Amino acid sequence: xxxxxxxxxxxxxxxxxxxxxxxxxxxxxxxxxxxxxxxxxxxxxxxxxxxxxxxxxxxxxxxxxxxxxxxxxxxxxxxxxxxxxxxxxxxxxxxxxxxxxxxxxxxxxxxxxxxxxxxxxxxxxxxxxxxxxxxxxxxxxxxxxxxxxxxxxxxxxxxxxxxxxxxxxxxxxxxxxx
Length: 178
Known about the structure:
The chain contains two helices and eleven strands, in the order E-E-E-E-H-E-E-E-E-E-E-H-E. The protein has helices at residues 94-106, 148-161; strands spanning 19-24, 51-56, 62-69, 78-82, 109-110, 113-115, 118-120, 122-126, 130-134, 140-145, 166-167.
């Protein structure tokens, strides 16, 4: 084993990332939504490597996440449970391991959402500009695409940057009384 060098301890974390804190009402926001990039569309001051402490208003959970990705345009954040321990070391609790496994699936799903009454993200045709992509935050993420298919490819790339690779499963329709 090689001991940690003294100079390595002079790197204060405060110079490298911020720590944020939010309180979530679990009755209004399922914990799974915290791991969806769309949830963070208005978190414009948060940067990659920042930590966010998530506290349930009813005290049912209290944990931290790390920001692992943020696209330059389109909005949203990619987050992971923090800390991520190497396999074999375990987590602080079984609940943490279950949360990590669940979030690996949830954060890849795109959930339908709207900004100013319009679905986001979306591709739309604009007279002189051709086709453009509207990001998760409702702003133009890219423009001047020559075709709808080119704009769809650009939107797919934007979603890939967020780790989104599939639409959310549709909820089964409620059965009507016959």
